[in-house]
Amino acid sequence: MAPGAGFQGRANYFFALLPSPLAAASADRMAHALRHWLDLSGPPRGPRKYHVTLWGWPEAREPDRTELALLRRVGQRIRQDAFRLDFDAVAVFARRAGTPALVMVGSEGVIGADRLHEAIERELRASGFQGRRASFRPHLTLLYDHCLAQAFRVRRLGWRVTEFVLIRSIPRRDYEILGRWPLRGG
Fold first, then answer.
1. Contact 170, 64 (CB under 8 A)
2. Interhelix angle 111-126/65-77, nearest 10 degrees
3. Strand order in the sheet with 101-105
4. What is the pLDDT along the chain (186 residues), one digit of tens a residue?
5. CB-based burial of residue 86 (10 Å sphere; 0-12 exposed, 13-18 middle, 19+ buried)?
6. How far apart are CA 167 and CA 56, in angstroms?
7. Which of 43, 72, 103, 185 has most Cβ atoms within 10 angstroms of its Cβ?
């Protein structure tokens, strides 16, 4: 089946960090444990869906070919060293659709992701992209559910980030990787 065939709606496009297989498995164990502990019913995202969004396409439409080419050029222009990404707390983020997200967040352990986000934003603006800016706080979504828990510390989850990717995402399907760019020293 061709990508997007039979899909009614809009795919999401975003630059992201994908966890190592070991980190994705750890995130999944954390999601299942928290689901049980907090008495939630939302299913964990799953090892193939965990990611950290760096920058998401902000328009109410999918990018056209020219815009996709621009995103790929931006990915190629990024020059940043590989870094360690660490999350050490769980929080609840509200979602526009009304279902909050249970997420992992960090403080000092997310500086590399902050810098990479800023580099992507800078390159997009330098390339003439005029879309709206979005707020950014590095996080890894574990599941979506109504949860009233306050933020709390958990065992650290982290991995060495050696690349970033451009993803096309359609609900309930595997991600389509549209571009992959290594970081220096990765």
1. no
2. 130
3. 140-144, 101-105, 83-93, 152-161
4. 344 455 567 899 999 999 999 999 999 999 999 999 999 999 999 999 999 999 999 888 999 999 999 999 999 999 999 999 999 999 999 755 678 999 999 988 999 999 999 999 999 999 988 877 778 999 999 999 988 788 999 999 999 999 999 999 998 899 999 999 999 997
5. middle
6. 9
7. 103
Q: Is the dihedral of CA 67, 73, 76, 82 positive or negative?
A: negative
Give dist(CA 91, CA 114) in Å, integer. 18
Judged by DSSP in three states, 169 sits in strand
Residues 75 and 94: their CA atoms lie apart, in Å, by: 29
Place of tokens 């967040």: 105
CB half-sphere exposure, 133, CA atoms < 13 A: 11
